[in-house]
C-alpha cells in the first residue's frame, strides 16, 4: 500500500517500546483507518470547515505567495506523483523548488511568532513531495486569506449558538470578522515561510516505516477477519 505524503507524519511517530512492532499507537491507528477505507470504504473524516476554507482559498494563497515571494510565476499543480512507497500532489512546483501552501483558519491560527517549523506532519509531507519530484529545496507557506463570506456567516451563527445568546449580535459579528478579515494587514506580513531541505536519511527511515506499516496492515486485517468469524 502506498501512503499519501500528508499521512507520513502519522506513521513516523516513534513507538514507546520495542514491543510495539516498530509502530507507535498513532501509526497503528492510522493503518487501521486505512484498512477500513481500503477494504470497506469507511472514512473517519472527509470534511471540516477548516479544510473547506483551505480548498476554497487555495488559489488566492498561491497568488499571494507569487506576489510576496521571489519565486516567479506560481500556479497550482494538479499532477499526481507516485513511487513504490508514496503518492502525492504538491501544491506548487517551480524549476528549482516546490511549495506547500497552508491557509490559516483565522488570525489566531497563523504562526505570527514561530521561528522554526514545529509541525512534523508538514515536515514529512514536504520530504515526501521532494522525494517524488526530485527537488532538494521546499517551502511550507502559511497564508492569511480572508474567510469566504458564506463560511464566515456559518461561523457567526456558530458563535451565537455556543454563547447561547441572541443579544449583542453586532458585537459577536464584529468579533468573528476581526478574526477572519485581513485587508488591513500588509501582504508581506500575510505569508510565513519555512524552508525544508531534502534529507536522504529521512527518506530511508520513511521507506523502512512504510514496510513495517504494510506488514502491520496484513497482520491486522487477517486478525480482524478472524475476530469477526469467532464472534
How would you characterize this protein structure?
The protein is of the alpha/beta class and 231 residues long. The protein is built from eight helices and seven strands; from the N terminus they run βααααββββαβααβα. The chain has helices spanning 8-11, 25-40, 49-56, 58-68, 120-133, 149-163, 169-180, 200-230; strands at residues 3-4, 81-82, 86-88, 92-93, 98-103, 137-143, 191-197. The strands form two sheets. It has a four-stranded mixed β-sheet, with helices on both faces. Strands 1-3-2 form a three-stranded mixed β-sheet, covered by helices on one side. Helix 2 (25-40) packs across helix 8 (200-230). The longest helix has 31 residues, at 200-230. The radius of gyration is 21 Å and the shape is globular. 27% of the residues are buried.
In short:
The chain is α/β, with parallel strands linked by helices and 231 residues long. The protein is 48% helix and 13% strand. The strands form two sheets. A four-stranded mixed sheet has the order 4-5-6-7, with helices on both faces. A three-stranded mixed sheet has the order 1-3-2, with helices on one face.
Considering the chains and any ligands shown, give keywords for the structure.
231 residues; 4-stranded mixed sheet; 3-stranded mixed sheet
Topology at a glance:
Elements: E1 3-4, H1 8-11, H2 25-40, H3 49-56, H4 58-68, E2 81-82, E3 86-88, E4 92-93, E5 98-103, H5 120-133, E6 137-143, H6 149-163, H7 169-180, E7 191-197, H8 200-230
Helix pairs in contact: 2-8, 6-7
